[in-house]
C-alpha cells in the first residue's frame, strides 16, 4: 500500500510541481492586481448627463419597440449619438433610440470610436489619438461570460500614456470593460496563468471548466498523498521533527511538514473555486423565486410624461419593479441617487417595508429585513457605495437585497454559507479578523504563498533529477 502511495505521489508530483509553483507565484500577483474590469465608479464617471429634450418616446413604447416580451429592467443613457433606452430581459438585451424607437445597436467602428471618446473625456482620459483596433467576440480580457450579451465587442485603444483600451458593446453601445497596459502585463503573469485562462480554452466555458476542475482535483490528490508520506516518514528526535532524507529531499520533506495545513487547505479551496454546483449550491434563485423577482412589470404605469421630471443631472435613469410596483432610479453620481416610487414620492433607496413585502413572496416564515453590518461574516455590497443591504432570514434560507435597486445580491442556504468558509475564507484568508487588519492579511498571504512556492521549487528540483535518472537508465 505504501509503495503505491510513493509511486503515485512521485509521478503526480513530477507532473504537477510546475503547476503548484505557478499557482503560488501567481496567487501573490492576483492578491494585488485583480483581473481587469470596469468598476462601477468608472462606469458612472464615463456617463454624460441625459439630454431630456431629445427623449421623445416613453418607457412603454421603448419596451414595445425592443421586442423583448419579458423585459424586467429599462435604462436610459446618453450616448454620443443621442439618448438610448437599454431594455433587459431574462436572456435578451437590446438598445433602442429614445428619439424614435429604432434599433440602436452599434455596427460601425466610427460609432464605437465616438462613444469611447465621450466616455474617455468624461473620465478625464486623453483620447486624442483613440482608434478602433479590433472587433471580436473574444480576446484575452473579454472572455468572462458576463460579456456574452454584449458580443461582439469593439476594442478602442486611446493611445494615452497608460495604454488604456476601452471595450464598446455592439448591442448597447456602452463601454463595458477597460484595461491598462499595467493591468494587462501583471495579469499575464497573474490571473491568466493562475486560472489557466488562455482565450482559446476559456472561450469554451464547459471545456475550460472541465479541464481546470480535473487538474485541480489531481493536484489535490498529489498534495494529500504527499501529506500522508510526510507525516509517516517524519521522525521525532529530542522534541524536534527530523527527516530520514538528505539534501533537497530533506528540504522538501521539512518544508512540506511545515506548510502541510496551508498547502492542503489552499489547494482544496482552489479546487472548490471550480465547484459550480457540483458539491455546493450555486447561490442562485430558483425558477420560482426568479419569477417573483424578475416578473415583467406593467410598463404602462410609467407614463411618457414623467420624463419631464427627470433631474437634469441624471447620468442614468433606470426603471425596475419591486413587489409588483414600478420604480424609477436616477443615478446622479456614484454615491448619489434618487428613487421615485409608484406614488411619486422620492427617496434615496427602496424602503425596508417594500423589500420585506417582496421577500415574503419568495419564501415562508421570513423575518423583517435588517440592515447588513459591514463586518458581517457573509458580506454583500450595494451598487451604491455605503448603501444599505437588507437581509431577510426565512428559516435556514437568507436573502440579501440591495436597497439601491431591489436586486437580490445573495441567496444563502446552508450549503452556500458553508461554501463561503470552505472556499472564500480558506483561499483568500478573508476571515473577519484579518479583514479588519488588511496589512496583516497581506503579509500572511504573501508569506504563505512564498512558502508554498519554495516548497514547489524543491519538488521541481527533485522531479528533474528523477526524470534525468529515468532517461539515463
Write the layout of secondary structure elements.
Elements (H helix, E strand, L loop, with lengths): L1 H31 L7 H6 L13 H8 L6 E7 L2 E7 L4 E5 L11 H14 L8 E6 L16 E5 L7 E5 L5 E5 L1 H8 L2 H4 L4 H4 L2 H29 L1 E3 L2 E3 L4 H26 L14 H7 L22 E7 L2 E7 L5 E4 L5 E2 L4 H8 L10 E2 L17 E6 L2 E6 L5 E5 L1 H15 L3 H4 L2 H35 L1
Antiparallel strand pairs: 1-2, 1-10, 2-3, 4-5, 5-6, 6-7, 8-9, 10-11, 11-12, 12-13, 14-15, 15-16, 16-17
Helix pairs in contact: 1-8, 1-14, 8-9, 9-12, 9-14
Number of helix segments?
14
In total, how many domains does the architecture comprise?
A: 3
Strand-residue proportion: 15-25%
Structural class: alpha+beta
Mean pLDDT: 94
Give the beta-strand count. Answer: 17
Ends distance: 26 Å
Show unreliable segments. none
Q: Rounded to an integer, what's the Rg over CA atoms?
A: 26 Å
Main β sheet profile = 7 strands, antiparallel
What strand order characterises the main sheet?
3-2-1-10-11-12-13
The general outline is globular
Q: What share of the residues lie within helices?
A: 40-55%
3D structure, described in words:
It comes from Bradyrhizobium diazoefficiens (strain JCM 10833 / BCRC 13528 / IAM 13628 / NBRC 14792 / USDA 110). Keywords: Membrane, Transmembrane, Transmembrane helix. This is Blr3280 protein. By secondary structure, the protein is of the alpha+beta class. The protein has three domains: 152 residues; 149 residues, no CATH class; 126 residues, no CATH class. The strands form four sheets. It has a seven-stranded antiparallel β-sheet. Helix 1 crosses helix 8. The longest helix has 35 residues. It starts with a helix and ends with a helix.
Amino acid at each position: 500500500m505504501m509503495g503505491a502511495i510513493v509511486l503515485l505521489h512521485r509521478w503526480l508530483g513530477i507532473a504537477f510541481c510546475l503547476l503548484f509553483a505557478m499557482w503560488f507565484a501567481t496567487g501573490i500577483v492576483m492578491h494585488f492586481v485583480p483581473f481587469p474590469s470596469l468598476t462601477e465608479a468608472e462606469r458612472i464617471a464615463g456617463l454624460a448627463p441625459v439630454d431630456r429634450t431629445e427623449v421623445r418616446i416613453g418607457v412603454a413604447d421603448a419596451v414595445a419597440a425592443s421586442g423583448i416580451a419579458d423585459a424586467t429592467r429599462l435604462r436610459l443613457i446618453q450616448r454620443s449619438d443621442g439618448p438610448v433606452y437599454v431594455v433587459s430581459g431574462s436572456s435578451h438585451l437590446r438598445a433602442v433610440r429614445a428619439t424614435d424607437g429604432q434599433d440602436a445597436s452599434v455596427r460601425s467602428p466610427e460609432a464605437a470610436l465616438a462613444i469611447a471618446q465621450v466616455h474617455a473625456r468624461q473620465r478625464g482620459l486623453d483620447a486624442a489619438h483613440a482608434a478602433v483596433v479590433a472587433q471580436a467576440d473574444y480576446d484575452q480580457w473579454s472572455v468572462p461570460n458576463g460579456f456574452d450579451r454584449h458580443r461582439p465587442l469593439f476594442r478602442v485603444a486611446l493611445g494615452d500614456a497608460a495604454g488604456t483600451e476601452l471595450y464598446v458593446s455592439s448591442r448597447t453601445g456602452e463601454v463595458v470593460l477597460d484595461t491598462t497596459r499595467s493591468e494587462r502585463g501583471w495579469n499575464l503573469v497573474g490571473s491568466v496563468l493562475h486560472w489557466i485562462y488562455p482565450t482559446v480554452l476559456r472561450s469554451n466555458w464547459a471545456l475550460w471548466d472541465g479541464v481546470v476542475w480535473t487538474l485541480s482535483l489531481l493536484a489535490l490528490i498529489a498534495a494529500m498523498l504527499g501529506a500522508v508520506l510526510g507525516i509517516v516518514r517524519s521522525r521525532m528526535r529530542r522534541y524536534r521533527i527530523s527527516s530520514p532524507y538528505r539534501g533537497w529531499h530533506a528540504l522538501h520533506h521539512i518544508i512540506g511538514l511545515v506548510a502541510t495545513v496551508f498547502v492542503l487547505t489552499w489547494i482544496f479551496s482552489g479546487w472548490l473555486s471550480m465547484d459550480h454546483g457540483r458539491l455546493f449550491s450555486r447561490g442562485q434563485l430558483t425558477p420560482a423565486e426568479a419569477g417573483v423577482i424578475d416578473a415583467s412589470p406593467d410598463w404602462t404605469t410609467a407614463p411618457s410624461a414623467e420624463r419631464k421630471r427627470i433631474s437634469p443631472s441624471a447620468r442614468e435613469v433606470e426603471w425596475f419593479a419591486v413587489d409588483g410596483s414600478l420604480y424609477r432610479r436616477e443615478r446622479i453620481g456614484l454615491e448619489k441617487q434618487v428613487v421615485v416610487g409608484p406614488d411619486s414620492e422620492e427617496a434615496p433607496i427602496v424602503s425596508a417595508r417594500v423589500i420585506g413585502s417582496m421577500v415574503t413572496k419568495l419564501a415562508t416564515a421570513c423575518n423583517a429585513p435588517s440592515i447588513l453590518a459591514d463586518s458581517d461574516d457573509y458580506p454583500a455590497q450595494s451598487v451604491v457605495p455605503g448603501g444599505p443591504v437588507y437581509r431577510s432570514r426565512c428559516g435556514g434560507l437568507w436573502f440579501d437585497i440591495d436597497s439601491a435597486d431591489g436586486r437580490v445580491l445573495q441567496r444563502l442556504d446552508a450549503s452556500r454559507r458553508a461554501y463561503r468558509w470552505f472556499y472564500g475564507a480558506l483561499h483568500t484568508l478573508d476571515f473577519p479578523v484579518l479583514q479588519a487588519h488588511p496589512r496583516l492579511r497581506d503579509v500572511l498571504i504573501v508569506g504563505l504563498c512564498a512558502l508554498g512556492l519554495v516548497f514547489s521549487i524543491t519538488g521541481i528540483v527533485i522531479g528533474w533529477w528523477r526524470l534525468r535518472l529515468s532517461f539515463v537508465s
